[in-house]
Amino acid sequence: MAGASETVLQGLVPGMDMNSYGNLEKKKRLSSEQLESLERSFQEEIKLDPDRKQKLSKELGLQPRQIAVWFQNRRARWKAKQLEHLYDTLKQEFDAISREKHKLQEEG
């Protein structure tokens, strides 16, 4: 029954995670240098091939899975920003067309 309480605790305590043995452990934050390196790599190519994942893992002292998850999360944030930008652009175009239509209706 300890496993169930750990799972509940894991969901309630920010920054806590289960390690591979089922024990709770504090999540380790990435250093600013690690983040900068990951960000530079992401700017070069948003997809992560296995060779580059291994190279980054060795360079940064992180598990390959950590690298993969970071890239996955970063792509999700990137996609959300792209959609936000697209929405703003389309909204501006729609508003301009709507104003033009209203102006033409008043003239006619």
TrEMBL record:
<keyword id="KW-0539">Nucleus</keyword>
<keyword id="KW-0805">Transcription regulation</keyword>
<keyword id="KW-0371">Homeobox</keyword>
<protein>
    <recommendedName>
        <fullName>Homeobox-leucine zipper protein</fullName>
    </recommendedName>
</protein>
<keyword id="KW-0804">Transcription</keyword>
<feature type="coiled-coil region">
    <location>
        <begin position="73"/>
        <end position="107"/>
    </location>
</feature>
<dbReference type="InterPro" id="IPR017970">
    <property type="entry name" value="Homeobox_CS"/>
</dbReference>
<comment type="function">
    <text>Transcription factor.</text>
</comment>
<dbReference type="GO" id="GO:0000981">
    <property type="term" value="F:DNA-binding transcription factor activity, RNA polymerase II-specific"/>
</dbReference>
<dbReference type="InterPro" id="IPR009057">
    <property type="entry name" value="Homeodomain-like_sf"/>
</dbReference>
<comment type="similarity">
    <text>Belongs to the HD-ZIP homeobox family. Class I subfamily.</text>
</comment>
<dbReference type="InterPro" id="IPR045224">
    <property type="entry name" value="HDZip_class_I_plant"/>
</dbReference>
<dbReference type="GO" id="GO:0045893">
    <property type="term" value="P:positive regulation of DNA-templated transcription"/>
</dbReference>
<keyword id="KW-0238">DNA-binding</keyword>
<dbReference type="InterPro" id="IPR001356">
    <property type="entry name" value="HD"/>
</dbReference>
<feature type="domain" description="Homeobox">
    <location>
        <begin position="21"/>
        <end position="81"/>
    </location>
</feature>
<feature type="DNA-binding region" description="Homeobox">
    <location>
        <begin position="23"/>
        <end position="82"/>
    </location>
</feature>
<dbReference type="GO" id="GO:0043565">
    <property type="term" value="F:sequence-specific DNA binding"/>
</dbReference>
<dbReference type="Pfam" id="PF00046">
    <property type="entry name" value="Homeodomain"/>
</dbReference>
<keyword id="KW-0175">Coiled coil</keyword>
<dbReference type="GO" id="GO:0005634">
    <property type="term" value="C:nucleus"/>
</dbReference>
<dbReference type="InterPro" id="IPR000047">
    <property type="entry name" value="HTH_motif"/>
</dbReference>
